[in-house]
Amino acid sequence: SLILEWNSLGMWEEDFFLFCQGLAANSVLQRLDLRSNEISHQGAEELAMALKKNTTLQELDLRWNNIGLLGGRALLNCLHSNKTLQRLELAGNNVPSDVLKAIELTMTYNQDRQAILSESQNRAHVLSEEVLRLKDEKTKQFLDLMDTIDKQKEERAKSDRMATGRVRKLQEALDEQHSMVNSLKAKLQMTEAALALSEQKVHDLGELLNAAKRDQTRMAECHFKELQQQKKEIVDREGKLLRDLSAASEKNLLLKNQVDELERKCKVQQDQLFQVKQDLTNRTAELKLQAVQAEEHQEMEKKRFKQRLEDMESLRVKEVDCMRQHLETSERSMQDRIQRLEAIRVALEEELSQVKAAALAECSRAQEELIEVRNQARLEEQQRREHLEEKLQQMTESLKKAQNCYFEQNQTFAEAKAAAAQLRLHADGLERQLEELQQNLKSKEEEKVTEVTKVKVELQAERTAQAGLREKIAALEREMKALSSNHREALLDKEGEISMLVEKLRRKDAEISRMREEEAQRASFLQNAIMTYVQGCSLQAPSSSK
């Protein structure tokens, strides 16, 4: 446990980077408190890189820092690879609620995973202890059997020594021994029937195991089909996004065409202004020529009509003044119009440049968002594949363990069968010895008594072995139930992940619709501006023609 609250570690980026490297290399620390340390989104990204490599940290407190949206996403991405962190506090960091919910879901998943791992470890420990105990019991039973065999051999040697003196007494008890042999045969038949029943039970257990294997294969196929369906849905969504991009590009092309039309109109207006200026220069030149011609004509008429000139001089001076005033007013009005047209042209050029910049920025932003969405989808698919592969490996390992247990049981059953066959052979050999050695009846009786006791011991051992097999079968059934419950929990986890993906896609669709609305609004604003400009140009055109 390490508590470092109220130390402002995030202000020194290089030192905090070294601290994150040490945390990534650490393999002992389980709890870390970094409250109120002014950690930015960059520091959060470095912490996320460290958490990807750390495998022992269980609790991390990052309350009251400056992590923000980017830092929260970085921490959420690192939790896909970190499976040991069980608690992460992010209050007071301006992290959105959807990111916090996703982090909480991953924390609950990690907690459940740790609980399942601890339970599996405990079960494995208990099973290993049971296996060791069974091995000890089997070794003890084998040693006991060897001791009994040695004792029986010694007793047989003694009975052979004593047999020569008791042959005559054993002839009368032959009938009784035959009856005992018949009873032993009946008992052997009973044991054979019990063995047949046990074989039938083992066969039934094998069928149950085969049914369980078929169910597991069917479930694996269902999972594979679900994965293929998810892939198809993701491909369809990517197609939709590409179609939306194509529509946006078409809109941008339309806007570019409109901008080109506006530029053409501006050029046409500039040409009109140039023609107006040329017309003004031509008119001023013509007026000047007319004035010169009038002056020459007046000079000629002065010589001819001196009397009329004196009367007309006042009138001519007044007319010239009027003409000059009219020319000055017309020149001023034309210059004002030229200045207004130039100001309108400059404003239109600025608007065109702004529209081009906005369109380029929107295109770049849409492309970046598409790239991010694709990368996130690919990462989520890879993580899901890895998770499912791990689960399939665990299932195959459990199946292999069950098969090994089943093979071990079959081996024990075969050993029991071999022991029964040996017992039958031994009984046949005893009968032959009884027929051949009628004189050694008393020794045979003692041997039969010892054989009966040995058969009883073996029957008891077989019963205990059957009880052990029943217990193992019950344990296997419990393990199958646990595996089915784990499988159901995994299915629930997958359904939760699918719901999360659906929510993310819904949010992306909402963002795309919002972008479309904004583009429509901008297009409407551009259309209004173009219409007002066209109306102004149409109003100015008739006034210039007048």
TrEMBL record:
Pfam families: LRR_6. Residues 167-201, 245-518 form a coiled coil. Keywords: Coiled coil, Cytoplasm, Cytoskeleton. GO terms for cellular component: centrosome; plasma membrane. The keyword ATP-binding does not apply. SMART domains: LRR_RI. InterPro entries: Centro_Cilium_Assembly, Leu-rich_rpt, LRR_dom_sf. It is found in: Cytoplasm, Cytoskeleton, Microtubule organizing center, Centrosome. This is LRC45 protein. It comes from Geococcyx californianus. The lineage of its organism: Eukaryota, Metazoa, Chordata, Craniata, Vertebrata.
